[in-house]
Specification:
The chain has 544 residues and is α+β, with helices and mostly antiparallel strands. It has two domains: 6-148 and 163-248, Immunoglobulin-like (Sandwich), CATH 2.60.40; 266-480, no CATH class. It contains twelve helices and 18 strands. The strands form four sheets. Strands 1-3-8-5-6 form a five-stranded mixed beta sheet, with no helix packed on it. α3 packs parallel to α10 (456-479), α6 (346-367) crosses α7 and α6 (346-367) packs across α9 (431-441). The longest helix has 26 residues, at 318-343. The termini are far apart. The model is unreliable at 539-544 (pLDDT under 50).
Length: 544
């Protein structure tokens, strides 16, 4: 560690340094080789901003401020020493790590064609986040050149001899789940700073050409540390250079409420814990307690659509919306459960059950890398595909409603346990349905890449989900093996009743008039209700 004063650096070597506001640290590199034309110097801290500059007195055009910032030093002929200055922006000590990376004359220069930001050459990635998505933007690169030469023009042409031949590969790296410590970030950000290390450890998300806008969107993962970086590649010389890596947790460490250590609100925990209790009961006993199962499925459908409606239409607070959603879910569940024993609408009930299972199944498909395919960024293509596949589930199981109901209650019921766990411990499996909700609520979420980590916690919770679902389905199938099929198949029930009425004349239902005659009698009854009563007495003339 370097605490204050002078920080001696070696090219390509990391050094940890403690910074404060009052005593700037002078970072120096000596004995730079003549084959090096550019040195990229960068510093990283977890949550406190750091000031990095070329001069002791920082200016707008010669410094950068942030948790992940860097500067590009274009070396002059015969130059062998580079100097930068570091300090913390606010009071208090800040743990940071610094590195300087050399590049040669044929290597592209990150941010060398900057026209948007303050620095003349800006290698930084600028990151903004919300609870929904993360926005990253950066300045285009320029071609490399020798010491003392003029830099290639950024707008002289679009041919293969200009910067327009450059390609940009965007990489993503996930920190260990549920670990917010500084030392973890410091140790892992080193893996995303140099070209070869980035390729070895990062996940390549996409490639941009110079024709594309240097703007990228990712889905937010509050509480999960993520590091992003961009490698610019020159296909003519087959050389590459890395921008300054940037990290985010998509949350605030400083907030007293809803900070990175306690993301879920109390109302969310209560809602999903109670929901998981009902789901766990449905997982093992949903088919036996048919009306409870229908209440559970009706609750899901009505709560989902009501939450989407009030979020888009009103500006109510989150807690109020969640309470109203719970009420709407209860009402919807009661209506669906009541529609069975009041009206016998088996077909409607099984359609809703199958639709819930279908929506979860399609959400799982788009949770995979399939969801990041460019074709699904079009909302029409996405929603047509999503709806069509979801509707296939109730259609495929129309001939075996008992199997459909047991599968739906086992799989959907057990998934509610995953949602409840996500309120207390981070797990990527919650984003199976959360990303669908984000897509419905936000018009521009289609541009975001939705890749998530899959680490030890996720593997354990996935195993718990699979075990619960398999156990619930197996228990219900064994229990119902010797029982009369329920719910009955609608067409077979109608056919059986029709045959029974046509053959059994002792059955009172055999003598029920046809539907047309019953409607006619009912209309006559209504007509008589509006007619005036006739007075009593003889109305015909007496015969003489």
């Amino acid at each position: 560690f370097c605490k204050a004063g002078l920080l001696e650096l070696s090219l390509g070597k990391f050094r940890n340094v403690l910074l404060n506001q009052t005593s700037p640290v002078e970072a120096v590199i000596r004995n730079i080789g003549s084959n090096v034309t550019v040195v990229v110097f960068q510093v990283h801290a977890q949550q406190s901003d750091v000031v990095i500059s070329f001069d002791k007195t920082p200016s707008v055009n010669s410094s950068g401020v942030g948790v992940d910032r860097g500067l590009v030093s274009i070396l002059r002929p015969q130059q062998t020493v580079c100097t930068w200055y570091l300090r913390a922006l606010d009071a208090g000590q800040v743990l940071s790590t610094a590195i300087s990376i050399p590049y040669m004359e044929k290597d592209p220069i990150p941010g060398g064609c900057n026209l948007e930001f303050d620095l003349e050459v800006d290698p930084n990635l600028y990151l903004d986040y919300t609870l929904v998505d993360i926005h990253i933007k950066f300045a285009p690169a320029n071609l490399g050149y020798t010491r003392g030469a003029n830099p290639p023009s950024c707008d002289s042409g679009t041919g293969q001899s200009s910067r327009w031949r450059l390609r940009y590969d965007v990489y993503q790296y996930f920190l260990p789940e549920n670990d917010l410590s500084e030392m973890v970030l410091v140790s892992h950000i080193r893996k995303m700073s140099e070209v070869q290390s980035i390729k070895a450890n990062g996940i390549k998300m996409l490639t941009l050409t110079t024709d594309d806008k240097t703007n990228i969107y990712f889905s937010s993962l509050p509480g999960q540390g993520v590091i992003y970086n961009v490698i610019v590649w020159d296909p003519l010389w087959n050389t590459s250079a890395a921008y300054i890596p940037v990290h985010t947790y998509a949350c605030s460490f400083a907030d007293l409420v809803d900070n990175c250590s306690s993301l879920s609100k109390l109302s969310t925990k209560v809602f999903f814990t109670a929901f998981a209790v009902l789901g766990l009961f449905t997982c093992f006993f949903g088919h036996r307690f048919w009306k409870t199962d229908l209440f559970f499925m009706g609750f899901i459908v009505s709560a989902f659509f009501f939450f989407v409606f009030i979020t888009r239409v009103t500006g109510l607070g989150y807690d109020v919306r969640l309470i109203l959603t719970a009420v709407a879910g209860i009402v919807g569940g009661l209506l669906l459960a009541g529609s069975w024993w009041r009206f016998g609408s088996v077909l409607l009930c099984m359609f809703v059950v199958g639709l819930v299972l279908g929506f979860l199944f399609v959400s799982m498909l788009f949770f995979t890398p399939l969801g990041d395919y460019r074709v699904f960024r079009d909302d029409v293509v996405f929603w047509v595909t999503f709806t069509s596949v979801a509707l296939m589930v109730p259609v495929l199981f129309v001939g075996c409603p008992r199997i459909l109901n047991i599968l739906a209650s086992g799989i959907v019921g057990s998934y509610t346990v995953v949602l409840a766990i996500a309120c207390y411990v981070y797990t990527s499996l919650a984003y199976i349905t959360l990303d669908l909700l984000r897509r419905v609520l936000n018009d521009y979420f289609n541009r975001a890449y939705t890749n998530v980590p899959f680490q030890r916690n996720d593997l354990i919770i996935l195993s718990v989900w699979a075990m619960l679902a398999l156990s619930g389905v197996t228990v219900q199938l064994r229990r119902e093996r010797s029982e009369v099929p329920f719910p009955p198949h609608p067409y077979l029930t109608w056919k059986r009743e029709r045959e029974r009425r046509s053959t059994n004349i002792l059955d009172p239902s055999h003598h029920i008039p046809p539907l047309r005659e019953r409607i006619h009698n009912k209309l006559l009854h209504i007509k008589e209700f509006f007619q005036k009563d006739q007075p009593a007495g003889e109305r015909t003339p007496l015969l003489l």
